[in-house]
Design brief:
Layout: E1 12-13, E2 25-32, E3 41-47, E4 53-55, E5 58-59, H1 61-64, H2 85-103, E6 114-118, H3 124-133, E7 136-141, E8 154-158, E9 171-177, H4 186-196, E10 197-208, H5 213-218, E11 232-233, H6 236-245, E12 248-254, H7 261-274, H8 281-299, E13 309-316
Parallel strand pairs: 6-7, 6-9, 7-8, 9-10
Antiparallel strand pairs: 1-5, 2-3, 3-4, 4-11, 10-13, 12-13
Helix pairs in contact: 2-3, 7-8
The structure holds zinc ion.
Zinc ion binds next to loops.
Length: 320
């Protein structure tokens, strides 16, 4: 495990509310880095004006990269899970299959479709879209993982999304799977995405839901806090307000996502027990799948229980 000192106060910066620019807020919860157990305590506040929950002070951008090292789950390689690798691969493949099934409820993907995944990480979703539907696929991420297989088919752009000079009004589908809660300027990212949508194009955003059952259950150990990487936490209301303020029109809202809510139930329970000591995911694989089996009757109702995730499907609002 990487050793890292607690970030010093000068590595933090005060920030105005991402939603409304307001400076008035009240403390909500202090979070730790529960996944890897790295030191540090991170304050989330609630905006008095618009109700957005965001990290304040936040780590300055140049210091956040250290928290996206090789232990970060979205960047894990597929092969380091021992003899559980086939089960892990099946579960990760299922996640990408679920993403594709979700987007195809809203967008017809053909060989002429152009798809952009913002925060594409290891690129497995885009690889699937390319292989299954022959779409032209583009991805943006601030971490370069292009050595991984599949990237030879992805038009990859390294860096911050809103800095990418991509050709405008081009994409039939833009996805943000667990991107927006990491971004340092989510309103700018939403505005940038709006300008990149083709006529009839859709933007699909999945984020953790702060007004969810798992959040109430686990409180300061809620996996959705994922401090310090998560800069903002959205309720249904604050998410819908922000997409609307960015010139987007809501096509549909789902109180679930393609990401399994069970992951939050499992890791939240583990974080409660471990109290900030960090979770060894390799050792947790067996209890993870056992717990999923036990909870499977409850998980059948995942879509009705507001357990952990939310998804909003948008299109560009026409100027009036
Ligand atoms: Zn606000």
């Amino acid at each position: 495990m990487t050793t890292l000192d607690s970030p010093s106060p000068d590595q933090f910066e005060e920030v105005a509310c991402y939603g409304c620019g307001g400076r008035n807020h009240r403390p909500l919860v202090v979070a730790e880095e529960d996944l890897t157990g790295k030191p540090g305590r991170f304050q989330f506040v609630t905006c008095h004006e618009c109700g957005l929950v965001y990290q304040n002070p936040r780590l300055r951008f140049e210091f956040i990269g250290a928290y996206y090292d090789d232990e970060y789950i979205a960047h894990r390689k597929k092969t380091d899970w021992g003899w559980f690798t086939p089960l892990y691969e099946w579960a990760m493949g299922k996640h990408d299959r679920d993403k594709l099934a979700l987007v195809e409820r809203y967008v017809d993907l053909t060989s002429r479709s152009r798809v952009l995944d913002v925060g594409c990480a290891a690129g497995t979703f885009l690889t699937r879209v390319h292989e299954q539907r022959s779409c032209a696929v583009s991805g943006v991420d601030f971490k370069d993982l292009t050595h991984l297989p599949g990237f030879e088919n992805i038009d990859f752009h390294l860096g911050t999304f809103h800095d990418q000079a991509l050709p405008g009004r081009r994409f039939d589908l833009i996805t943000m799977w667990h991107f927006l809660e990491h971004d340092y300027d989510p309103m700018r990212a939403l505005g940038h995405a709006r300008g990149l949508l083709a006529d009839g194009g859709r933007l699909i955003i999945e984020v953790p839901r702060v007004d969810s059952l798992s959040s109430r259950l686990f409180k300061e150990r809620w996996p959705g806090l994922q401090a310090p990487q998560h800069t903002a936490l959205y309720s249904r209301r604050t998410l819908l307000n922000m997409v609307s303020a960015a010139g987007l029109e809501v096509v549909d809202y789902l109180p679930y996502g393609a990401f399994p809510a069970y992951f939050y139930l499992f890791t939240g329970t583990a974080f409660k027990l471990l109290k900030g000591k960090g979770l060894n995911l390799s050792r947790a694989v067996y209890p993870y799948f056992l717990g999923q089996l036990i909870l499977s009757p409850v998980l059948l109702f995942e879509r009705r229980l507001n357990l952990a995730m939310q998804t909003v499907v948008c299109r560009a609002r026409e100027a009036t």
